[in-house]
Amino acid sequence: xxxxxxxxxxxxxxxxxxxxxxxxxxxxxxxxxxxxxxxxxxxxxxxxxxxxxxxxxxxxxxxxxxxxxxxxxxxxxxxxxxxxxxxxxxxxxxxxxxxxxxxxxxxxxxxx
Amino acid sequence: xxxxxxxxxxxxxxxxxxxxxxxxxxxxxxxxxxxxxxxxxxxxxxxxxxxxxxxxxxxxxxxxxxxxxxxxxxxxxxxxxxxxxxxxxxxxxxxxxxxxxxxxxxxxxxxxx
Lengths: 112, 113
Known about the structure:
Mean pLDDT of chain B: 92
Order of helices and strands of chain B: EEEEEEEEEEE
Low-confidence stretches of chain B: none
Mean pLDDT of chain A: 94
Radius of gyration of chain B: 13 Å
Oligomer: heterodimer
């Protein structure tokens, strides 16, 4: 089955800095890579996703890059704000399975 | 539009008591349904998933069970809770495939005392 590794487990940045979270996956058949944000005590919510037919996707201050050859993908947050503080999860899925495989999460702390 | 309902939001149960958490999805048919658990506010551990009525796949052997009596209803149960069952339980659904966006319920904070 799929295995997703996520780093770092904790990331502290100053407001305005950029933050990068990296994930690797093991199954070359995986073709869908979402990122979820979970605020304290709340449900995870999708913030951006990418499919294997593109290498990069942007949405305002958030971007995701995918390197299929190396089997890794990254989340980039620019101009971080205190409200970006949350736990971020990456995930991978392929059409042969019925489940997303999640990374263990990164706690992002943005200090004012 | 599709919505997912999960209840209760919080629950405090004594060790050895039974458990029943319910999740329903509206506005779609034949969804894939999932139960996840989060301990200590971090990783999402997949407990069960279902691709159809009566079809349950278990990812982690433990004293929990799941059932899908109707197309859009998913129930998580236990006959006797353990202290280690405490955590944040999340129901989720995807539109019939695993490689699409998952939508999560609000979660149930279970504390076993």
